[in-house]
Automatic annotation (TrEMBL):
Main location class: cytoplasm
Protein name: Radial spoke head 1 homolog
Function: Functions as part of axonemal radial spoke complexes that play an important part in the motility of sperm and cilia.
Gene3D superfamilies, sorted: Histone H3 K4-specific methyltransferase SET7/9 N-terminal domain
Coiled coil region boundaries: none
Keyword hit for Cytoplasm: yes
GO BP term (any one): axoneme assembly
InterPro entries: MORN
Lineage: Eukaryota, Metazoa, Chordata, Craniata, Vertebrata
Assigned keywords, A-Z: Cell projection, Cilium, Cytoplasm, Cytoskeleton, Flagellum, Meiosis, Repeat
GO cellular component terms listed in the entry, alphabetical order: motile cilium; nucleus
Protein localization: Cytoplasm, Cytoskeleton, Flagellum axoneme
One Pfam entry name: MORN
Length: 219
């Protein structure tokens, strides 16, 4: 069993754990362990919207390790803290088959991570669900593209020159700019239209840049 300590999760032993099934008036159902009339230990919770969580609970909250199956087919497998995705985890996007593997903080993708697509992957740092700073794209054909992601507000002069990107920036979607600095291995470009992210190509200081807005994980 787990509880929150100064260093994160710590293991404790809990006596008097009961097993049972509880059906809620809204159609939800919990099957698993209880302690003092709260979901506590291993359990499965089926939500009214069709989503489901299988894993560890502490005092009625998803806490420890578990798998969440979202109603759109996405899944998250990993660590939880006080009901939030927190720690290390993998989020699989059902529609594209892409997956995020790495750190989470309070439900958001954050820290060192890898975003894996069908024919390539991105390795770098994420903050509040968006890639930021130095990273690299690794392509299955054997080449790597190194560069850096920059926030939208730092490249407004670029945005204003591209009509389609202006529309994206006004839509409220998070947009980052990728500036490539080095390409190693075999150079090969393929249309990214099948990816979970939408890209628009442009030139910045003689380097290829991609304007990116990413699909967000389900809440």
């Amino acid at each position: 069993r787990y509880q929150v300590g100064s260093g994160g999760l710590v293991t404790i032993s809990t006596p008097n754990i009961l097993q049972g099934t509880y059906r809620f008036k809204n159609g939800a159902r919990y099957i698993g362990e209880f302690f003092e009339n709260k979901k506590h230990g291993q359990g499965i919770f089926m939500y009214p919207d069709g989503s489901k969580y299988e894993g560890e609970w502490v005092a009625d909250q998803r806490h420890g390790n578990g798998v969440y199956y979202y109603m759109n087919g996405d899944t998250y497998t990993g660590e939880w803290l006080s009901h939030y995705r927190h720690g290390q985890g993998t989020y699989l996007y059902a529609e594209t088959g892409s997956k995020y593997v790495g750190g989470w903080v309070n439900g958001q993708q954050e820290g060192a991570a890898e975003l894996i697509h069908l024919n390539h992957r991105y390795q770098g740092k994420f903050v509040n669900g968006n890639p930021i700073g130095v990273g690299k794209y690794v392509f299955d054909i054997g080449c790597e593209q190194h560069g850096e992601y920059t926030h939208l507000d730092q490249v407004n002069n670029i945005i204003q020159t591209i009509p389609n990107v202006r529309k994206l920036s006004k839509s409220g979607q998070p947009i980052q700019v990728w500036s490539a600095s080095l390409i190693t291995g075999t150079v090969y470009f393929k249309s990214p239209t099948a990816l979970v992210c939408a890209f628009v190509s442009c030139r910045v200081n003689k380097n290829l840049a991609w304007l990116l807005y990413c699909a967000s994980p389900a809440t």
